Amino acid sequence: NKLWAGMAKETAHQIGTPLSSLIGWVEILKTEEIDQSITAEIEKDIDRLQTITDRFSKIGSVPVLEAKDIVAETLNTFKYLQSRFSKQVEFSFHTPNEPILAMLNPTLYSWTIENLIKNAIDAMKGKGTLDLQIEQDAHSVKINIKDSGTGIPKKQFKTIFEPGFTTKKRGWGLGLSLTKRIVEEYHNGKIKVLHSEIGKGTTFQVSINKKI
To answer: Does pTM surpass 0.90?
Structure first.
């Protein structure tokens, strides 16, 4: 774990220098006669790179949790990814019309949602429907991410969260293992395959306690 943490922090450090240069170039572009919507999109991608750098720098550290609106945090990540994937993926987002407070580390939580959405799109081979739904009860909030992809055999519902687990159709790598660790160890939550049917799709569910 110490080795991986050290490598992650060094990666964050190495990304930092060219990232600072990119920020400077964007400021220069703003002074030129360039469509401001273009520079705005570049800034969004730079912000994303800064978030990724922040994620790597936090590996191996004790995450700081704070009261955040989990609906807004989820939607921010969802919208960013929605605008950067194929138009052949139909996205939908269903949520209560009110903020829901939960104790989150926004950077790591965003990583969780991003991993699940990217896995869903991979499972659909870049074409299909992806639905994200947020529900709540008295004590917890549940985030369901449903895709119309290849599906997962029931015997693999638990093993897909093991480090390095792969299939010929879906390469999970460290993605779901890391996602599980972020949800369960850092946020005291739960993650599971809620439902899956071969050839029809899969629903992952993340459950996190609400801030009472």
So the answer is: no
